């Protein structure tokens, strides 16, 4: 039989623990929320596993129980969920850092002020135990297996795993509280924390014989009975967030495909929003049984900023996570939810444009990916897109732009580049400004890509002003006309010839232009050629 083994934390995990244990003193009661949420996840996982493996069907109903030893100053959190075996312990508690750990460590070093917020977003999860504990013991037994294990650590570089005894499946996490964290061995304090953070965990959380929480699935209750505070608490619990949601979308669809969704738009941008491996954060339930929170088949990638849950009775409970991909019912739910979210965004954009501008600043670049990804909903997405413009304070929609177009103006003009401030000062804009013609200033990476798909709006073509034929001759202003009449064009031919000789092969052509008023020259692409900025982008990506 096995003896006690000692392992080192992976470097990143070690660094993470140092940050967690050393520098955080405000708000540290959230460790309890994290451990309760792991216990709840473990029950969800076993309930799901039992769907396909009858031998795993639990003997008692799921619950989470807390135990306080006020003499020994310990607090423990037990569940009768899935449990962990030796391999699980090694993989999840210490030797393999979660993806994004290094990015998180960088972020937290850069922003000392908002460490707790960052920790929430990243989900240090289990490791938050070390905020309050000098030593953590994890006694666990995996459902369907007979061996139990004891994982122990003081969070300082190493942990041990040893064979142990446990009567039933599940996990008990015992915290040996630090000297300055004895308050967490106080019943009243613990009750209060559970009420604050874990009221809507859907399994009972017990202290002795008392159940401390409502233990119901909040989303199943009618929206009009739920208070704003309850929504916020649920959001924080379900998504490990610290902010208040920017918007809540709670929607019940009845009919051919019943489903309920309770979705939250965060008010701050998660630091990993643009990490390639960032997954969906919306949890899928079938008739209150948790199925998964990693499927890409429930929420489109361009709505990946959403948090919350989707629950449907009309999906098969026996559906495996792998089969979700080909489930036509799920595809329908996905479309229905996407439409609902877009229509809610549209309402916000119309009724509260200032609030919408905040949302747009956080998630606009993500939403615009939908213009490329989701051809079926492209028009609806475009409808809620907002853009900076040379002619308007704040943001504008394409339709608003069109309504302000000058007589004789035939195209929606835009300039795309990396830096919004630079774009606003671009010499390309001068002629347009002089004529009072608005130009959209597009500075997100994704802009170049949707512009390949959307070439017109409301019958008006979208035109880059860094291309040859962005022609302003049709647009009349009186002042401009006078100036033009006086311009001495004959003198330019000698100058142009001289410039051509000087630049040779570097340029395709040199032309006089009316688009400039203050700057002497600018670079443009020919109509059939690639836009200057797109060319630069593709070069950077090695193409
Ligand atoms: P997350 O919950 O976001 O996955 P955590 O750091 O909270 O991250 O937990 C890491 C992993 O440890 C979990 O994904 C799970 O596999 C395992 N784990 C933690 N607590 C428990 C528990 N009570 N029962 C079973 N597994 C657990
Ligand atoms: Mg967790």
From TrEMBL:
SUPFAM superfamilies per the UniProt record, alphabetical: ATPase domain of HSP90 chaperone/DNA topoisomerase II/histidine kinase (SSF55874), HSP90 C-terminal domain (SSF110942), Ribosomal protein S5 domain 2-like (SSF54211)
Entry keyword annotation includes Nucleus: no
Magnesium as UniProt keyword: no
Pfam families named in the record: HATPase_c_3, HSP90
Region ranges (A): 1-321
Primary location: cytoplasm
Domain (Histidine kinase/HSP90-like ATPase): residue spans on this chain: 27-181
Alphabetized UniProt keyword annotations: ATP-binding, Chaperone, Cytoplasm, Nucleotide-binding, Stress response
InterPro entries the UniProt entry points to: HATPase_C_sf, HATPase_dom, Heat_shock_protein_90_CS, HSP90_C, Hsp90_fam, Hsp90_N, Ribosomal_Su5_D2-typ_SF
Cellular location(s): Cytoplasm
Assembly notes: Homodimer.
PANTHER family per UniProt: HEAT SHOCK PROTEIN 90 FAMILY MEMBER
Family stated for the protein in its record: Belongs to the heat shock protein 90 family.
Protein task: Molecular chaperone. Has ATPase activity.
NCBIfam families named among the record's database cross-references: PRK05218.1 (NF003555)
Protein name: Chaperone protein HtpG
Origin species: Tateyamaria armeniaca
């Amino acid at each position: 039989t096995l003896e006690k083994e000692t392992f080192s934390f992976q470097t990143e995990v070690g660094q993470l623990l140092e940050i967690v244990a050393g520098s955080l003193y405000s708000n540290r009661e959230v460790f309890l929320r994290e451990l309760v949420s792991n216990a709840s996840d473990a029950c969800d996982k076993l309930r799901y596993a039992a769907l396909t493996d009858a031998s795993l069907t639990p003997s008692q109903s799921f619950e989470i129980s807390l135990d306080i030893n006020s003499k020994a100053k310990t607090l423990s959190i037990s569940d009768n969920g899935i449990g962990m075996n030796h391999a699980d312990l090694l993989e999840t508690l210490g030797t393999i850092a979660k993806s994004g750990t290094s990015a998180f460590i960088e972020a937290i070093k850069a922003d000392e002020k908002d460490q707790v917020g960052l920790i929430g977003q990243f989900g240090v999860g289990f490791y938050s135990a070390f905020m309050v504990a000098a030593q953590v013991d994890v006694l666990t037994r995996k459902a369907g297996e007979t061996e139990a294990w004891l994982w122990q650590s003081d969070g300082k570089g190493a942990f041990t795993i040893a064979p142990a005894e446990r009567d039933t499946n599940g996990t008990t996490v015992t915290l040996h509280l630090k000297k300055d964290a004895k308050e967490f061995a106080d019943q009243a304090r613990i009750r209060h924390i559970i009420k604050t953070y874990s009221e809507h965990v859907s399994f009972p959380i017990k202290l002795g014989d008392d159940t401390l929480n409502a233990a119901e699935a909040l989303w199943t209750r009618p929206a009009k009975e739920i208070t704003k505070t309850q929504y916020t608490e649920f959001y924080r619990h379900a998504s490990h967030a610290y902010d208040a949601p920017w918007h809540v979308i709670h929607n019940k669809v009845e009919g051919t495909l019943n489903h309920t969704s309770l979705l939250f738009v965060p008010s701050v941008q998660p630091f990993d929003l643009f990490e390639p491996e960032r997954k969906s954060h919306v949890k899928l339930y079938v008739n209150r049984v948790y199925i998964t929170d990693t499927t890409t088949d429930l929420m489109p990638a361009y709505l990946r900023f959403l948090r919350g849950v989707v629950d449907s009775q009309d999906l098969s409970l026996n559906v495996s996570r792998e089969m979700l991909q080909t489930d036509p019912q799920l595809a329908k739910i996905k479309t229905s939810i996407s439409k609902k979210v877009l229509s809610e965004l549209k309402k916000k954009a119309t009724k509260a444009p200032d609030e919408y501008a905040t949302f747009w600043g956080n998630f606009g670049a993500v939403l615009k990916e939908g213009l490329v990804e989701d051809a079926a909903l492209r028009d609806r997405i475009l409808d809620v897109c907002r853009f900076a413009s040379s002619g308007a304070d704040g943001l504008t929609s394409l339709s608003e732009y069109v309504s302000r177009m000058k007589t004789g103006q035939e195209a929606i003009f835009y300039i795309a580049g990396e830096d919004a401030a630079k774009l606003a000062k671009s010499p390309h804009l001068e002629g347009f400004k002089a004529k009072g013609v608005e130009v959209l200033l597009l500075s997100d990476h994704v802009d170049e890509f949707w512009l390949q798909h959307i070439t017109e709006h409301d019958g008006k073509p979208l035109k880059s002003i860094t291309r040859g034929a962005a022609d302003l001759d049709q647009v009349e202003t009186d002042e401009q006309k006078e100036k033009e009449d006086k311009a001495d064009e004959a003198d330019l031919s000698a100058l142009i010839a001289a410039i051509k000789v000087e630049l040779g092969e570097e340029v395709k052509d040199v032309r006089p232009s009316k688009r400039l008023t203050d700057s002497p020259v600018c670079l443009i692409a020919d109509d059939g050629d690639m836009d200057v900025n797109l060319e630069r982008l593709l070069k950077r990506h090695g193409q």
